[in-house]
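Box S2. Input/output pair 1.
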Amino acid sequence: RCEGPNFLRQRYERVRLLLPSEGRMSNLLIPKLPGYATEDPTARRTTHTKTLGFFQGQRYVRPSFEEGDMDGMNTQKSAGSINQQDTWPAAAHMKIPMDSTDDFTPSYVALDGKVLRFDAYLKEDVPESPEEGFRIRKFTLYYFLVDDSIRVSEQRQENSGLAQGTFLKRHRVPKTQAGSGAVASGSGFVSWDDFCVGQEVVIYGRPMLIVDCDAFTREFLTAKGVQMPDALSIPNDPYFMRRKAAEEKIPLKVFDDRRQRFLQYNRKVLRFYVQWDDRERLYGERRPFVLHFYLEDDTVEVCEVHLPNDGRDQFPKLLRRQKLPLDSRSGLQDIGSAPTRHYTDADFHVGDKVNVFGRVFLIYDCDDFTKHHYATKYGIQHFPNLTDRIKTPMVDIPQREVPPPTGFGSDEDSLGSIYNLVPKQPKRDEAKLMEFAGKTLRFLARFESPRAKEDVDRKFIVAFWLADDTVSVFEPPLSNSGIIGGKFLERCEQINVQTGERFTFLDFVVGETVIVNSFEFRIIDCDKFTQTYIDSKGQVIRSQLYSTSLVDIMKNLQKRYEEAKEQLRSAFHVMDQDHSGNITHAEFIMSLNQLHFDIVLEEAEALLWWFDPDFKGYISYAEFCDAIVRSDKFPQFLLNWERKKRAGTLSGRSSSTLVSPAPDAKSPAA
């Protein structure tokens, strides 16, 4: 519906504001119907020409524009610029046979890693030097076929004064004019067909004459139809020739290859044992040293040898590692003049003397490696042994005299004041004290030479304490003797006058006499434990020192069972040494001994009857557990058993016939 001209004018203004430009056509007002489509000739295209493509799964660079591309893409750039198509690598101008069925390999894959190598030289003017008019510089040119880039490397010449190495980094080199280096108009880049032996190639204005190429380069160019001439020679540089002739006239020094010597003699050192005799001076002495000679650089070091209580500071070396001059005194007197000769391995021999900056050392011995070195290199087989010659006569060390005891404390207390300015408490054998605590050897004795008639019937108990080797004497009271019994000698350390040392348990022998505190006693008897201990000469195990009754053994086993019931089966398996499932009587007694119970097989018959009621020779696990559980009834069982034994009414085998049954005689474990 039309609402007048104002309505049309307002609608036109709204549409005009939506247009991107005042002078550009717009098809916003034209409906998108067949026959109404128009193209704006003033619009700028923003599409790009395709230069890459895919063929048979391989990427490649399109060498030329295909049909259907936009107009104007083949136009030349402005004057003096390079053609767009010429900027592509020469390897990219490979036509793609679209109708071919063969496998296709793109150029950047086929030519990857293939490089043409040329040898060239540059004749460069040197106007700033009067000694040389020009110089010859040698180069190696590398042409990379994959992207037509070039890298130039200058061959190194000794003492040339030039920063040689990489002369031109890898990139595409434009064709330039010789001398000026200006880029030629429309000339493009240097390619492989510009290289040939005998021709010059201009690299940024520097003409380089190619003289040779490698075998791959010749084969590649021959396949392309280019015939390469033979290699040319590079002319000599006059300046280098004159300098080489001058160097040949100078006499060469003796060649010393330090690297070769290092590789051959590294960590190989000659060791000589030397002595410096300085007894001519006041308080001088003969001191031993060790001289090391390093074969890799002919250096010498002298190390000190420190003896116990020599009173010297612990300096490791007398002379640090350095070359040792033969005439050290003249070198020290002429300040500023270096010694002409130094010690070598040929100057050291056993028996000779070495002057180390005024100190004369006598070589008296060397090690085995040094002897092998001289025998191999110089053929020296005899090495005199001068060890006895350099020894200092030994002086007898004065013996320390021990003064008599002071009377205060024991003899160890008196010796403490001798060995230390402030006496220290004597150390005790704690392990011995813990092991033999309360263990005593008891002997019955009497006077050997009674002084009075009353002393004839007197009896004494001499006790020897194993924990600290002390002795005590006790006199039992005797009725109507007129002598008060009791302690006769306080427990203390006693010296055996016959040996001059402290008493040991071996000094007390039944039937022999012993002098204790000036009293001479004759040993007439001892108890059973003492006799057993003396017969074994003290080599009894700890368990033999614990004498325990059978009732105490059962109480101890019951206590262990109550503390760790779950470990009872493990303990039974430990007792079962042959892993038969049962424990024999001998294994049971051995286990009790390991628990420090002093008991033998003959004394344990009642205990075996308790654990083995049928007395069949072995104990099962059920019997073992039952005997321990009802151990509170063992004292009454022991009284009944002793009564039956005295009456002779016990049935079964006696303790004298107890033996371990054969393994096959055992019954299976309960």
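Box S3. Input/output pair 2.
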Amino acid sequence: MASLSELLNPTGGMEEHDYAQLPSMIEEEYEEEYDDQPGAMGPDGHGFLKGEVGSSLRIRNLDAWFQALYQYYKEKGFYCIVTSRVVNLLTLGFTIFLSGFILLYLDFANLSGQCAEDGEECHILRDATFRNPLRHRSFLYNLVVVCYLMLFSLFFLWSLARLAHDFKPLLEMRAFCNRKLQLSDRDIQTITWPEVVARVVHLQATTRLCIVKDLNEHDIVARILRKENYLLGMLNREVIGLKLNIPFFRNRVWLTKAVEWNLDWAIFNGMFDDDFSIRPSFYDVTALRLRMRYLAVVNLVLSPFIAIFLAMYFVMNNAERFYRHPGVVGQREWSMHAWWKLREFNELSHFTEQRLAAAYKGANNYVSQFPSPVVSMVAKFVSYIVGALAAVALALPLLLDDKLLHANVMWDKDILWVTMVSATVLAVSRGMVGEENRVFRPNRYMAEVVRHTHYLPKNWRNLAHKAEVQAEFEDMFAFKAGLFLQEMLSIFAVPFILWYPMCESAPDIVQFVRQFTVHRKGVGHICSLSAFDFRRHGDARYGAPTNARKDARSKQGKMEKSFVSFHAHYPTWEPDVGGREMLTSLAGFKSALYAGVGPEGAGVHNVNESASRFGVASRLGNGTGGGGSKFAAPGSASMFLGDAAAAGGMAGSVARAGDDDGDAPRDEREEEENQVLLQQFYEFHNGDGTDEGGDKFAGAPRDATPPRSAVKRRPDPPASFEMTVSASLTPPSSMPRLSSSLPGTGPGTPPTINGILGAPTSAPSADTTDSDELDAANFDDPPDLFQLENGTRGF
């Protein structure tokens, strides 16, 4: 007997699908119309993944198509994209025109001489410009400026041609979203990305995207971020040489926008073939070094022109802002190096931007904990002097005569000029004065930052009051002016970075790709760290079910943190066996740690008792989290396992660290809580001082299994905690989540399949679970460090 799904939505040879059609995705005659379009939905010149020739949408390159879909979502639909690109094109053209006029036609000598003396009688376009600009400058100056204008004029024409070329694919993507996903341009501006992905996944019930298998959420994101995941893995394992051995910059990592562009061209451009497998030629270290040196020469030639353009654009874009608000000079932002360091595997750029924006307030609070007393005293003195001069300069014209505004004071400058300069200096100096009566608690603010960034190296843990930690953090969260200066310097440093440290690291880059590559059915080659392969790369200190070798793990539990974040963002995604084991293990740890905490985190009477069942009760409530100095500095208590953390329930003291996230979307709250849980897990089991990349228990032999005799049973979870921790794995169709709140409730909740379909989700097919073809020669089967007495993994 045919199922209701088959009756409502006949799939035509695709009976293996058991879920119903989206109510908002009524199939009409559009599919046949799409199939008749040759080359629709994909750029020319690219082939299919093996077996994708029969795709009903005729997608030539699934990677490029999913990237285009994500950009269409991120840039908020067709009209926003076209408007943005036209405005950017006009901005580029105006910048070229105005910079050419200033550099060639403007007579600076006459402007600062005769025009300055004549004042209102001077007509700049008539009296301070050259009629024949090339006759008044040196040959070298004219050559550089003319080459600059020609180069960026060609770039303008290329951008214009690209806009015209992309217009038809944008229309096709708009038609796909309207007809297949039933998303209008207005819907694109308000919908969440997980819902878009859920619609694409469900669309495969009637429309083939990949003939090999139905792609799930992880497969789609892995295609979008194929190259980015490799770069994240290389940066995490520190295999790319980005440091120059020059005075004053020996320890600086040069990762700016210019370096990022060259990394893409040198390493990832041409890395994959038409079947999305790594080309055999990529493993040629000599060829890789040759590409890097070729790019070094190109950058050396283009660096003066790029520097001119960036300087002109920076002045035009920020001059008015600096004039109106001089205090913005002292503002900070996350550096490009921090952006890539804090980004997680399979994390799309808008999720990273949201996390760093949420961490901005806490980061400012943290750096303001360390004002320099000397700088503050000098700044107060300068503020007083300049403020007094500005007051006198303003009082004279107001009390006597407003004509005094143009009276010369010194250096042939009038009172109006002195007032404007004084206001600028006053704003800058006051911004350098430290805030008085501030309570010193750096660990609390660092915990607030970690809550969003998920980054906490070993030498930062419970030591946020140290000067070394402050210096490292301020290097990641730097002044905007300093970041721009670094970007300008990097333009001239890129040739040397490519020629020396990156060429030296070419063998390590090739070895990383050999060791950390896995082939996934229907996707192709991807970085194995982004595949969440816990058997191969698991780190038991962060809750992974197995503990891999040190040289195979991601540093600071980046893979485990990425997995928890990905699972929170995509509630419809069903992880494989290793992922389910990790979720079960963390849920057991959570229920044991907070067995005595009520739904609102009010009761704490059984917290230490629950901890004692793990044999480490002394680590709770001691103020140090089991690590650090016996006498902790004020504000340097444990970030996640102190008394405040225990009393505060799941999120501990960080839930009250400053920002109000009560109205945050459910997936963001769940992600933050789960990341705090990972930090608690690490401190709970690794609070005895092992190094960040070392083994699990200090003082024990490297291959020894940690003693677990104290663990007799798991405490029963509270009634409000919707999770069953049993000896058997949780079935995929009822996979629990770590959040104590019910999935799919609260404002801003990402969609679930139940919410979209109105019906339960069927269990995944066999080809979507644990289907990776692993390179078994690259790793050994690691021992299970979490084997309990009853034979089950977890806590």
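Caption for Box S3: The chain has a mean pLDDT of 73. Strands lie at 332-334, 408-410, 413-414, 477-479, 517-520, 524-527.
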